[in-house]
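User: We ran a pulldown and think these components assemble together. Before we commit to crystallization trials, I'd like a predicted model of the whole complex to look at. Sequences follow.
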Amino acid sequence: MRRVGGTELGYRMLPSVWGLGYATEGAQALVHHAFTELGVDRIVATTMTVNTASRRVMEKAGLSLIRTFFEQWPEPVEGAEHGDMEYVVTRETWARQHDHE
Ligand SMILES: CC(C)(COP(=O)(O)OP(=O)(O)OC[C@H]1O[C@@H](n2cnc3c(N)ncnc32)[C@H](O)[C@@H]1OP(=O)(O)O)[C@@H](O)C(=O)NCCC(=O)NCCS
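Assistant: Here's a predicted model for the assembly, 101 residues in total across the polymer chains.
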């Protein structure tokens, strides 16, 4: 399969459908597609530390926390003082997670 390097995962749902599992389902489908169809090697995602829902979506899509970082935002939003988190999964790790399926 052709290798295309890494890519970034991101999502935004309409507030009217929050909490229904759609972000999790969509993120899992995108990760599956990236690794099985696009030949991606590594997927990265970032979110604010205080964004518990987004962090759960990343974890349930198979990504793991690798670092917390702090950026200087020109107009910081509430919670920015807790920083941002970066999550990653490689194709090898994802494949191991799905070995049993
Ligand atoms: C973050 C976002 C994508 C989550 O979408 P969603 O469809 O509501 O997510 P899901 O229903 O798949 O839920 C994912 C997990 O977060 C949890 N969750 C949902 N809303 C939550 C909240 N307000 N606080 C804490 N946890 C929450 C769910 O319980 C679930 O975890 P669980 O399986 O352990 O129970 C959505 O809230 C959103 O679009 N927010 C605005 C934009 C944004 O923050 N985008 C991400 C930027 S990195």
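The helical segments are 22-36, 52-60, 91-97. That may be worth checking against your pulldown data before setting up trials.

User: Thanks, that helps.
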